[in-house]
Amino acid sequence: MVWLKEVRENISLTLIWSLLLAAMLIMVILLFPAMAADMSSLLGMMRNLGPFAQALKLDSLPVNQLIGFYAMECENMLGIAGSFFAAYLGAKLLAKEEGQHTAEFLLCLPIRRRSVYWQKWAALLTLLVFFNLIIMVLAALVIYLGQQSLPWIDFIQLHLALFLVQAFFAGLTYALSTFFRAENLALSMGLVFLLYFINIIINLWPALKFLRFFTPFQFAYAADILKQGLDWSLIAVFILITVMVLSLASLHYENKDIQI
């Protein structure tokens, strides 16, 4: 089964990434009690950073509370590093068959290309779910055992938003990989950088707010989630874009001339 094969091949890498990022977030959680006394001054300093704080929406994050401090670090680690990991998997899972010249074996199996395409996408989503669950569960466990408290609904919404950002990049790079004969990691990493840069530009110049429909980072800002919850209308737009892009790429993959 293609799905199971891909999960088995990539589960170790996914576990390593998840444990590394979980360890960093656990350090944030453990450091917070010792830093709590200085958080008020840090909050004031962040609010005086001007355009920089505005670009990253740091000026409205309650970093003097555990949820605010955790959300700030989580947004960076899972939003940026997590998106790089998702983009890497998306660029790799399908394109490697041509790049490593294993497509001949795969396509000799009694299975349609469409099934191969969607099973590999299902494997990619499975790996991302595993990646995020490991991090989320370990962070929650450390918070609970350390007898610290935070609004768990906000905690869950934050992690859900960051998972959806990763899923978008995974879907986009996975779809684009059907147009290449090998893994194009530079393009995939570049897309994450580009959309994150557009995201910052939008925050600095409100007149460009219409560009929010071009970058998923816009619905994953910790400050916005803590204030008003998830922006489901914007999330729905990106889910629709992901489904459309994946569907179009599926049609292309079914008819492309695959190099073996």
Automatic annotation (TrEMBL):
Give GO terms: molecular function aspect only. ABC-type transporter activity
The record's Gene Ontology cellular component field reads: plasma membrane
Provide an example Pfam family for this protein: ABC2_membrane_2
The alphabetized UniProt keywords are: Membrane, Transmembrane, Transmembrane helix
User: Which residue windows are transmembrane per the record?
Assistant: 15-37, 121-144, 156-176, 185-205, 232-253
UniProt entry tagged with the keyword Transport: no
Which PANTHER family does this entry report, sorted A to Z? ABC TRANSPORTER PERMEASE, HYPOTHETICAL MEMBRANE PROTEIN, CONSERVED
**What is the protein name for this chain?**
ABC-2 type transport system permease protein
